[in-house]
Each structure stands twice: as C-alpha cells, then as structure tokens.
Write a structure and sequence with these properties.
15% helix; two-stranded antiparallel sheet; signal
Length: 246
C-alpha cells in the first residue's frame, strides 16, 4: 500500500498545531518572550513535540532573542505587522559556490490570515544520502515580534522505506545599513557579540514587494559587503575561518 502526502500538507499536519499554540502564547505572554527551543526542531509521528524536547545541536542553543528597547541595539525592537515581513530574501553571493537560499514570504489568506506562507529554493554542495529532493519548498510561517518561524517538511528514501518529518527554523529580523536581514541564531550570536557576519546564517531582503507568483529561479544574490562598515575588509569563507568582521 502506498501513501501519498505532499510536503506542504505534511508541514501543515505536523507543524501547524504547534504554530497555532505559539501564536496563542504570544498573545497571552505579557513579557512577549520568544519560546525557547524552537530552532530546527524535528517533529515526526514517532517523535511528537513535547515541552522537554531539545533542538538539534546546530545552531547554538544559548542565544536569546529578547531585545532591550532602551539600548542602542541594532535589532528591530517594535512589533512587526505581517506585511512588513513580505518580500524576497536571498543568501549572499560570496557563498554561492557552496550553498544558496532564496525565500519568498507571502501573505496567507482566508482562515489562515494570521499566518504567512513561504516558497523556498535551496541548494548545497553537500550530498545528503536518501534525501527526497524538492525544486521548491512551500510551507507556513508565523512571526512573533522580530522573530519568524518557518515550518518545513522533508523526507528520506532508504531501502524502499520513506521517512517523513518536519521542522521549525527560527530567524530574527535585523536592520543593517538600511537593509532588512534575517539571521539564524548562530549568525545572530556572532553579530551581537562581535559585530561579525556569518554568511551561512544570513538572508538579505532584496525586494520588499509582494512576491506572490514571482519566479525564484533567476534571483541575483547580494554581496555580504553591503552590510559591511568597512568594505575594504577581505572576505574569507566563514565555514573555515569563522564569521567575518564588518
């Protein structure tokens, strides 16, 4: 017997209840804190979410996304309306030889109007055995203050057996040199602690218009140097040498 389930449906089945709980918690949380442990969390039928479930070891788990609005922090400190997230985000051109990501964040409609949807194209030079390839990944996401969570479904095929799973990826919105940037937690840590940029955890918004129905196949990736304070700094592969100074 075969079972057909689209990745979009799988993400909704496994992640949407968790996102709804998150959204409800945001409204009830007077301190407006970001829920811990949601970054890159794997949820499967055999591994349901629990309060004690820990995230995968990458990115680092000792990072907080709380923002002190009274400081001179470069992070956006205001609550972001949903339409402020919409647009096309891309990884930097410097890492194109190794990996690349383009994400279009779009408004949802109807019953799911409290959510955003996204389309994503991704490639990597790392071969992952048995991974079921998808040309374009689709799913839903939810924003809490300056943090956004993407639900993503994926699967593996090995020895005739298909394993399906889903996860939540967490990014924080930051403004650098008037550019809106999404930072994964490892990139956020390097930026906040050392004013350095870790390309592999950075997506730069290159278009703030509603990207609905726009193709993601011919997007030009921006240079990381548009975020630099000193463009004379030489770029080195941060995977090998660590995050680069701005």
């Amino acid at each position: 017997m075969s079972l057909t389930c689209s990745p979009y449906s799988l993400a909704r089945i496994l992640c949407l209840p968790f996102l709804i709980a998150l959204l409800s918690g945001c409204a009830d949380d007077s301190e407006n804190q970001s829920p811990p442990g949601l970054n890159h969390t794997v949820l499967t039928a055999d591994n349901p979410p629990s309060q004690n479930q820990e995230s995968e070891p990458h990115p680092p788990q000792n990072i907080t996304t709380e923002i002190d609005s009274t400081s001179n922090s470069p992070l956006d400190s205001s609550n972001s309306p949903l339409d402020s997230w919409c647009g096309i985000y891309a990884s930097t051109s410097e890492v194109e030889g190794y990996t690349g990501t383009v994400i279009a964040i779009e408004p949802a409609a109807g019953h799911y109007s409290k959510f955003l949807t996204y389309r994503k194209r991704y490639f990597t030079d790392v071969s992952i055995g048995g991974l079921i390839e998808q040309d374009e990944i689709t799913g839903e996401c939810v924003a809490n203050s300056d943090v956004i969570y993407f639900s993503e479904a994926y699967g593996f095929l090995a020895n005739g057996h298909i394993t399906l799973a889903a996860r939540l990826d967490e990014y924080t919105k930051v403004t650098i040199n008037d550019h809106v940037v999404l930072m994964r937690e490892d990139a956020l840590e390097a930026y906040k602690a050392e004013n350095k940029l870790y390309d592999y955890g950075i997506l730069v918004r290159i278009d703030d218009r509603d990207p609905t129905a726009k193709s993601l196949t011919s997007i030009k990736h921006p240079s990381i140097k548009i975020l630099y304070e000193n463009t004379d700094h030489a770029w080195k592969d941060p995977f090998v040498n660590g995050a680069n100074p701005r």
